[in-house]
């Protein structure tokens, strides 16, 4: 035989042998490979006793490219090629299905981070091996799939270490400074206790602590901290290197004042606490941190002054926060309020919201409990009363006389927002009830639309205008107001669809609603106005009286953390009611509100009082 032909056959035999992957020893492999190759090449149906049909299919798929490269022609039906490709795809899917980790991922039904960690590594402890820890982080935390999760492996002084952090939260300057110092380490610098050496001597940072639970460490990483893992150690080093994206503490748009501070709360919990701590430099001011939500792990802070507040009330609040079992509170304070305060379908707010640090500091000095929720600029103050929700910081920024005047004007506006329209409609339906001085009340001519329908349409129009103003850019807000006031209102009156007085009184009631300091209270009063309108239209005088009575009963039976909602009117406290009606000078308010059940009820000690008298 020609030597060139022998070389070609030998190379074909070797290629077939590699693709075939047979387990038969030494001398039998070339012979079986040669038979399988020529059987496929020349259409021979003879099969060897040791080869299966699956092995022949694999030989054909592996040999065909080599035969084409050698310039040989292989005649095989097109259907066989398609079936081979289909078998290859099916084999890949079967291989994926046989992956034990993928099967374990599909079978996981963990409800919390702790359960997920225990599911993957058997315990919630820190593993001594960095490779095992990395595998757990891949499954639990999304390492290698989430681009912002950083797991930087390094070696310092012969000691393997890894830094885990979130790139968007970590402060680069602090981490760079720590890593720069650690790069100078040598094996001689590291003592037997590696963790103590790293923490005490070589990490130049203030807020550093140890951790021995993996779930807690991961939660702190997700909140912005950085964690150092050390090879062979069952503890980690947790460093507070977080830097949240935040805005400046600008004045809140809802609680603006002419005189006073211009700072307000933001969405960052730490800065909000600092604003309050700046105003109340009392060592008794406590900030207890909790976390709510199995998935969101939202930070919730309960603030109070330890020697003033009612400890029973603090315990009741903290217990309810700890009992909240929900996957998360992404809407922050409002969802937490529904979880711990309740209220159901009650339209009236049972807590007070504020975005001003000075208002929150004043409530803390009165013995209230304050709840901060991370990612929310609003702070909850509880317990609260109906009259607390009617007060504004501007009243205390003016003289007592002007503060009292502003408070009365605000009370009149709140009263008008609730009762002006129902009373006017009642007097129109029953003109005999009007006193002689109010004979001018009532429409001079009737419109094409019934009176009740006019009120309902105007109510819906005002609410629609308010919602549109929230979603309208500021430069376009004035134009939208002109369109609503001039075009819609004026044309509706001129065409005879509405009565002039309906639009006038509705505007006055809306102004009273917008003048209400608490946005939630304004919306609740608007709902009461609608109910009273329907009651007057249906039952006239009886409807108004019954509706008003039910409103008083609702407000009386409301409880804000076991405190009367209508205090000091119900139960009546003459001194406290006088301080609400008339804004008292600062030095005249010598005691704290009694409904809080404070431990220290005095604002000024008796010694200071005697000095002032002298």
Short descriptors:
614 residues, five-stranded antiparallel sheet, disordered N terminus, 21 helices, 10 strands, alpha+beta
Concise account of the structure shown:
This protein is 50% helix and 9% strand. The protein has helices at residues 3-20, 28-42, 53-69, 78-97, 100-107, 113-121, 130-140, 172-182, 194-202, 214-222, 269-279, 311-323, 333-340, 357-365, 400-429, 451-471, 474-494, 500-514, 519-557, 574-581, 606-613; strands at 149-156, 159-166, 208-211, 226-230, 236-239, 285-292, 298-305, 352-354, 369-373, 379-382. It is elongated, with a radius of gyration of 39 Å.
What does this structure look like?
The protein is α+β, with helices and mostly antiparallel strands. Helices cover 50% and strands 9% of the residues. The chain is built from 21 helices and 10 strands. The strands form 2 sheets. It has a 5-stranded antiparallel sheet, sandwiched between helices. It has a 5-stranded antiparallel sheet with strand order 6-7-9-10-8, sandwiched between helices. A hairpin with a 2-residue loop joins strand 1 (149-156) and strand 2. Helix 1 (3-20) packs across helix 2 (28-42), helix 1 packs across helix 3 and helix 2 (28-42) crosses helix 3 (53-69). The longest helix has 39 residues, at 519-557. The chain is elongated. Residues 1-6 and 8-77 have low confidence and may be disordered. This is Spore germination protein. InterPro entries: Spore_Ger, UPF0353/GerABKA_families. Belongs to the GerABKA family. Residues 1-110, 590-614 are annotated as: Disordered. Residues 93-110, 597-614 have a biased composition (Basic and acidic residues).
